Amino acid sequence: MTGxxxxxxxxxxxxxxxLHVLRGVDLVVAERELxxxxxxxxxxxxxxxxxxxxxxxxCAGQIIGDGTxxxxxxxxxxxxxxxxxxxxxSFNLYPHMTALGNVALALRKVLKLPAAEAATRARAxxxxxxxxxxxxHYPAQLSxxxxxxxxxxxxxxxxxxVMLFDEPxxxxxxxxxxxxxxxxxxxxxxxxxxxxxxxxxxFAKAAADRVVFMDAGVIVEQGPPDQVFGNPKHERTKAxxxxxxxx
Length: 247
Hints:
Blueprint: E1 5-16, E2 19-30, E3 34-38, H1 45-52, E4 60-65, E5 68-69, H2 77-83, E6 84-87, H3 99-110, H4 115-128, H5 144-156, E7 162-166, H6 174-189, E8 193-197, H7 201-207, E9 210-215, E10 218-223, H8 225-230, H9 235-246
Parallel strand pairs: 3-8, 3-9, 6-7, 7-8
Antiparallel strand pairs: 1-2, 1-4, 4-5, 9-10
Helix pairs in contact: 3-4, 3-5, 4-5, 5-6
């Protein structure tokens, strides 16, 4: 990693009962960096991502996000989460509200913006994800990929400093994945700091600054995509890459 750190996670442990899911993970992300986290199911990828904005409470360790101690009990976690946006596998849109309404609601509720200003900013966010012509459509009138792009618009409308993506394309039909990845690529080009958990290895190879391979709750290996995919150093990484490339 080069550049100014914007996310620093040190010594993160997470237990679910007797299951030790994260085992002392260290992860530092620089401003404007795109970090891609890969690994087998159950390796702790999504749990780590959710710890970064305290959707999961780590059992031990420290997380600094945009200068704020995320785990300090005095921290206004809602304010911290405005700076660390998150997009999930499921879209979580309100079915009775239009695309514009879903995005504007977040601006009204979280930033307390007046309705007119919220609508203006929501419209601009939908334009950024190439949905300017779908503002009045309800979720049922949108494809899965379009719904996910509304969810991305809702997150970026709050102008976060960091975006976390947890398997953003895994619920989509294959032909709908490209539109979501194109939006993520555009955010990357605009300088958004992004941490992405995904199985989209082609996107990782093409767009990531750094690829992090996790297995059994630890970071096994990390480096530029060319190194991790083309010349992995660890046997577990090699086995995972071989398996992925066979499918």
